[in-house]
């Protein structure tokens, strides 16, 4: 029996045991706006503990004491929060955290190389994060597999049933020497997928991930795709996101049917000293019983929540204020990594 028949990459909407995050501190890229981003992290943890447990990476004991105090003052239920002391360069755990496969005996933690999005930033400590978490005993019944290949969790989406969605721009940027056929074969083998759907269009200004799929389009239950649309012809994204929408509309399920499509509204431009920031509603996190949605204080926030409510029936849509996050070119999904049910004691 082929190995991929007994190992599976679960979808994000499947049952979970916890969500993994890392607390920002003065030695991360958040130093200049630490107070603002801490408010987002407090709101995030407060929302998470209503539905699941949270594992919070902290750089040292002092940071844990500080984070506990901030959360306690916000009346967050700390009985559902576990702190783990570990070194990290930054807090984008979607990209440095484990990509988890279910196996007959437990789990396989895929530890791909993390290069700071193609060498843009220092990432040596982030690249060792999964190994350090394993050493700390965070995971149960899990085997770590190191893979000498640069891949970030934000670059891939799965439906849990053998379909992977990704962007050619990101994978080609990381591996310019590889053609699509070879990348396709590697992804299918490592991630136990039957097929890979590639998008050739889609980008956001202010995004330094080279078009991660989780800022653009997300697979959703029952053969659906939720994607970031742009309805403003005067916006610089209009043509490219329109071309992406056409690509998505042309995709087919394994049964040869069109996907059910859920376009997300477009937030007004957010500028920081003239620099456009990537305010994507597609960067949401699915957890047991809820979808946590990035909110930007924009008139489109309620409309985005309504779309997600339709795409994820039966889950509460919880808005988390994420405007501080896009200053560093990411959002809610980028700072979190869900851990499947049974992976954490």
From TrEMBL:
Domain of life: Bacteria
InterPro entries per the UniProt record, alphabetical: Peptidyl-Arg-deiminase_porph
Key word Hydrolase present: yes
MF GO annotations: agmatine deiminase activity; protein-arginine deiminase activity
GO biological process per UniProt: putrescine biosynthetic process
Any one Pfam family match given in the protein's UniProt record, by short name: PAD_porph
The entry's keywords: Hydrolase
PANTHER family given in the database record: AGMATINE DEIMINASE-RELATED (PTHR31377)
UniProt name for this protein: Agmatine deiminase
Natural source organism: Lysobacter dokdonensis DS-58
Taxonomic placement: Bacteria, Pseudomonadati, Pseudomonadota, Gammaproteobacteria, Lysobacterales
């Amino acid at each position: 029996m082929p190995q991929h028949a007994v190992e599976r990459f679960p979808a994000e909407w499947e049952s979970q045991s916890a969500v993994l995050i890392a607390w920002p501190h003065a030695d991360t890229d958040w130093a200049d706006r630490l107070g603002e981003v801490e408010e987002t992290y407090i709101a995030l943890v407060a929302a998470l503990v209503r539905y699941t447990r949270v594992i919070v990476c902290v750089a040292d004991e002092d940071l844990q004491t500080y984070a506990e105090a901030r959360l306690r003052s916000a009346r967050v239920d700390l009985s559902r929060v576990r702190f783990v002391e570990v070194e990290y360069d930054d807090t984008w755990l979607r990209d440095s955290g484990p990509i988890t496969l279910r196996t007959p005996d437990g789990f396989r933690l895929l530890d791909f190389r993390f290069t700071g999005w193609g060498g843009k930033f220092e990432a040596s400590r982030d690249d060792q994060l999964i190994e350090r978490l394993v050493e700390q005993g965070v995971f149960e019944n899990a085997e770590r597999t190191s893979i000498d290949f640069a891949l970030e969790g934000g670059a891939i989406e799965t439906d849990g049933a053998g379909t992977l969605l990704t962007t050619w721009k990101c994978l080609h940027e990381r591996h310019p020497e590889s053609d699509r056929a070879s990348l396709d074969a590697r992804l299918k083998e490592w991630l136990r997928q039957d097929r890979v759907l590639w998008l050739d269009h889609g980008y956001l200004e202010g995004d330094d991930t080279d078009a991660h799929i989780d800022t653009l389009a997300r697979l959703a239950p029952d053969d659906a795709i939720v994607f970031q649309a742009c309805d403003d012809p005067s916006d610089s994204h209009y043509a490219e996101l329109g071309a992406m929408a056409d690509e998505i509309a042309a995709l087919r399920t394994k049964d040869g049917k069109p996907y059910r499509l859920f376009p997300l509204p477009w937030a007004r431009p957010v500028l920081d000293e003239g620099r456009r920031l990537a305010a994507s509603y597609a960067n949401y996190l699915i957890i047991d019983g809820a979808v946590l949605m990035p909110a930007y204080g924009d008139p489109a926030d309620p409309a985005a929540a309504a779309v997600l409510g339709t795409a994820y029936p039966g889950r509460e849509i919880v808005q988390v204020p994420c405007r501080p996050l896009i200053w560093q070119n990411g959002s809610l999904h980028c700072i979190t990594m869900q851990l499947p049910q049974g992976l954490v004691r």
